[in-house]
Each structure stands twice: as C-alpha cells, then as structure tokens.
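*** Fold description ***
***
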Amino acid sequence: MPASEPTSEIDQYQSQLTLETGPVDLFRAVFDKLQEPTRVIDLDRSVVLSNLDGGGPDGAYRELIADVRCDEFKSGAGTRCDECLVRASFGDGKEHKREVTGIDANGDRWVLEIQTKPILSEDGEVTHVVETFRDRSREKRLERQLLQSAKLVSIGEVATSIAHEVRNPLAGIRLGLDALDPSVNADPSAKEILADITRDIARLDRVVSDLLNFTKATPRQPERFELRTLLKQVCRYTRKTAEQQSIKVEVKVMPEDLEIWADRNQIHQVLLNLLLNAVQSMPVGGRLQVSGSWHETLNWSADRETKSGYRIRVRDTGCGIPEENVHRLFDPFFTTKPNGTGLGLATSLSIVRKHGGEMRINSTHGEGTTAQVLLPDRSEEG
C-alpha cells in the first residue's frame, strides 16, 4: 500500500526534512516537547512548524500565538502588530526580542516575551525565522512582590520614630493655640488664620495616626465568617456615594455560603479601602463588581506548599491608572488624591501579607482597575 500524501503544509514541510539523528517522527517529538511555545515561519509568512497543536498555553495571550499566517498576527489589543519581530528578522537577519503585556480575565497582568531567530541558508539568506514565546508573568509578579517587601521593611524601620517626633510638637502647637488670648479670636483675619492652622494640625495628626497604624504589629484575631456577608457590609458604607454618582454595584460570591478563616476586622479594612478607591475613580458613574471565590489552585507569585485559596476581587470601570503610577500604588506616601496620605494601600498590603496572602492591582488607563486580594486556604485552622 503506497504511503499517503502529506495532507497539510506542516506535513509537507516535515516530509522534506532529513536528519542524521533519526526519523522525522523523532524530530517532531522533540520539537513538541519544547517547554517554550515555538513556531517556525517561512518566507511566505506562513507557519510551517508549531508545537501549539496540543492546545497551547492557558494564558490570555493564547490568541497571540495561534497557528495562523504571520501576516495575520494580531496583538492583544486587537490591532495589527506594528513592531513585527518576524519581519525584522527576515529583513536584517538578526535576533530580536520584546515584551507584550495585557490583563487577563482575573485582572492579573500577563507578560509575554517574544524572541525571533533567523535560519540562514548556505548563501547567508534568511529562509526561516524561529519565533519563541516565554511567559514571564509569574516572574514579573514575584519581582514586584520582593520590591514591595523591601519598601515596606525600609519605611517600617523609621516610621515609628518619625511619627512620635512629629506628634509631640503637634500637641504643643495645639495647646499653644488654646492658650491664646481670647481677644485674638475676635479679630476676623486672625480667626481665619487660626482656623487654617487648626485644619493643618488635624491633617498632620491624621497622617501620623495612619503611619502608626501602618507600622504597629497588630495581632490577628482570625475567625470563620461568611464572605458574602462581609462584602455586603462593606458595600453599604459606599452605597450613598455610589447612588449619588450613578454607580451600579454588583456582589457575587461562589459558592454563596463561602466561608473564610481570617481576621474579619482587618479584611474589612482592606476591602473598604479598595471600594472607596473604586468609587472615587467613577465620579460620573460606572460599574463596580465585587466578587469572592475559592480556587483549588491560585496563581501565586512564588511556590508554596498549599496552592488553594480565596480570590477577592474589586473591579471598576473608572478612569484607570496611568502605567507609570501602577508600580507605585503600594509605595508609602504615594497618592494621587488631593487629601490622601498615601498609606491606605500600603497598610492594606501589610495586612494581607500578615495573612500569608498577596495583593495585586492592575489597571488600564481610561478603562478601569481591578484589585485582587489572594488569601491562602486556612481551613485546617478553623
């Protein structure tokens, strides 16, 4: 019985290969076992080899590396790839590399490193380009986690002493104002100045209080509680403002009776902070989604013995955050609010860390922001 004719472009290409190390089947088996998604592209910009047939990666960038013609390659934003590395390698015969980023359905930022390497003929002409894709999402998240930890440690070492040094003079200034001759308050201009001073003292005192709350090691008092009840309670604090700004609030917990083991008051503080930020980002209306769920496996930044845990997500359709500011959100004293202290998110991060969890915020400027709190499953403690 004669051998069947190649039925696909990849089969036709493979049938032309001759390898000293063994048959084509061996080559294909080795190619398919490559850890990094890889494809080979010819001069016609067609994919002649690919190890993505088994379904490919599970990431949100799956569409980026689909087995299609190279000149049909689309970016995550749905636009043509203007910086095509394949085209560049065919043009200059050199290797090229760049990163493509996006946000997946959970609100996590994914980072995909694309690299191209040309294959040259004996005449030095580029005949094919090998394109590889490396998922660097977890690596980038871990880098950010380590950087955040370093910042928190640094500020914690000096914050307490600074807070006390500031609070003592403030108390003296406040007592001095109270001791002023009553006749001073009778002068309208002086009274206005004193009112400004009093407001500034109050603001400084609030900053000091936030700083002390950030640095002090408040012991956790974990308990088992229903997550849905807590989320609805937190949402009630922002209900009036949300109604005034025409914000639609949705709460969803799967399963509905989901319970977690954590310090209820501290998690309440974290979620309230996130909801207030979300509401403030939608002054002219929008949609606020608050959800909670349990997962057998969470995409933790670093390896851990128990991978299961809870994902609490706060997603808004507000103004979003510029890319250059996203990496600074957890920095102590960084704020974009006129009257903010810049300690709310830093304190929230500290609380989540003490629970053994992670906190992530990713945003697209002009489209919205997704904040996530990941907490480990501590069922055995309850």
